[in-house]
Write a structure and sequence with these properties.
By secondary structure, this protein is an alpha/beta fold. It is about 35% helix and about 20% strand.
Length: about 450
């Protein structure tokens, strides 16, 4: 069943990660098919759609503040506007959120994404029995595939493909499995069809995402650990000059064949995004990461030795409950020795409903922030040394905007930039020579 929304003006605010962005693109694509008119102006929309994030405390606060701002704007400027809230925040808090914010006209869970047009039509239909809070599936099953239309929100030269949804990991600090449900992979056929469509539109960088891209296919059968390599084989066989980038690879699921694929491919960027979270065994055990120090060290060393000219990026959590000064110093020493090319660190944030929330050994906020700051100061020194080694080299870059580009070692909105001449056209590859750097960014001609 399809709804007719001809002439209905819709604005969207999309919050959170790239995985949430794909859901936003699907909703907008569905609304366009139904005849809706999209506008970037929240003031002039008949319906304001807010796709929220509910992952960690700062993201939750941003989502709540955005909803409250929308309610205030409607009360003062657009009194007839309907406000619709969807995404992870409502999926996580359900009835509690709808009770807290009665001014919102409609709340929708993640499984309602492909039916967004029907829900909005019912909301506008005065004779409809539209429920303010349709039944919320606490274990969502929806995953965007090639059958779902999408309205691209990224620049025209790169886009995301969500190859799977949900997560099976028991990490004690993370709420995502409870929000997004169990891991579920798309078929290779579906992913390749979407990628081919993107290449035909002129996309220069395809970014594969999921909660854990290295788990891809293992939900279909325990012996399908090579399915990700099969997918990459199919993608790199497509004609064209483009990059393939993988984000969010869990260290527990890397395989020898995947390392070989990164090493031998000319289209897969030599960008290894592998969040280890920590290196000290007591903390890894409390986090339930399914990895240990010796394994992580061996894996990272193997990747660095076999995938030539690769940049390895990781994400860390400091101040996890029970993290001793010895644990932190072990992490600091490892970073100093291994020298990650890219690194992000977060002070631990206790999230409701996680096992870690109830753990003893809480670390004071001041200590958590001090430890995070110390690691980033170290990382800044490491990157400075690495950037010195790039001066004088010629590199292939993808120009994102006039004057700004990225190497294959840098994901959009996450990593470093290359400052290039404004004459280079956006959305195209270029060959540049590095002549200097400023903190994390490179300068090229």
């Amino acid at each position: 069943m399809e709804a007719d929304l001809s002439g209905t003006i819709v604005a969207m605010i999309s919050l959170g990660c790239s995985k949430n962005l794909v859901d936003s693109e699907v909703m907008l694509g569905k609304l366009l098919e139904a005849g809706a008119v999209l506008t970037p102006s929240a003031h002039h929309a008949d319906i304001l759609l807010i796709n929220t994030c509910g992952f960690i405390s700062p993201a939750k606060k941003e989502s709540i503040d955005t909803i409250l701002s929308a309610i205030h704007r409607r009360d003062t400027v657009a009194k007839k506007q309907k406000i619709v809230v969807t995404g992870c925040l409502f999926q996580r808090y359900g009835e509690e959120l709808s009770t807290l914010l009665p001014e919102v006209d409609l709340f929708l869970g993640l499984d309602e994404v492909p039916k967004i047009d029907i829900h909005l039509k019912q909301l506008l239909d005065k004779n409809s029995d539209c429920k303010k809070n349709p039944s919320l599936n606490i274990s969502p099953r929806f995953i965007p595939d090639f059958d779902h239309p999408r309205f691209q929100l990224t620049p025209l030269h790169f886009g995301y493909i969500k190859i799977a949804e949900g997560c099976n990991h028991p990490c004690t600090f993370c709420i995502i499995p409870k929000i997004r449900g169990r891991y579920r992979s798309r078929s290779i056929k579906s992913v390749v069809a979407e990628a081919e469509s993107m290449i035909q539109r002129g996309i220069k960088e395809i970014i594969l995402i999921s909660q854990d891209t290295t788990f891809y296919g293992q939900d279909l059968s325990p012996d399908r650990s090579s399915l990700l390599v099969d997918l990459l084989d199919s993608l790199e066989a497509m004609d064209g000059d483009f990059w393939i980038r993988l984000l969010y690879t869990h260290p527990a699921h890397w395989t020898t064949s995947l390392i070989e694929k990164f090493s031998n491919s000319s289209k897969i960027t030599k960008y290894i995004d592998i969040p280890i979270q920590h290196i000290s065994d007591p903390i890894l055990q409390r986090m339930q990461r399914k990895t240990e120090e010796s394994y992580i060290q061996e894996l990272l060393s193997e990747i660095r030795s076999k995938v030539k000219n690769a940049a390895i990026r990781t994400t860390l959590i400091v101040g996890f409950p029970g993290e001793s000064e010895e644990d932190f110093q072990k992490l600091y020493s490892f970073i100093s020795t291994f020298k990650f090319d890219r690194l992000g660190v977060f002070p631990y944030s206790a999230e409701e409903g996680t096992k870690a929330e109830k753990m003893i050994g809480k670390i004071p906020e001041a200590i958590k922030k001090r430890r995070a700051k110390k690691i980033m100061e170290l990382q800044k020194q490491i990157v400075e040394e690495k950037n010195k080694g790039l001066v004088g080299r010629s590199l292939k870059v993808l120009v994102d905007a006039p004057g700004l580009a990225r190497t294959e070692w840098d994901a959009p909105d996450i990593d470093c930039l290359v400052h290039v001449p404004y004459s280079l056209p956006a959305g195209h590859f270029a060959e540049v020579k590095i002549i200097g750097f400023k903190e994390y960014d490179l300068i090229a001609q």
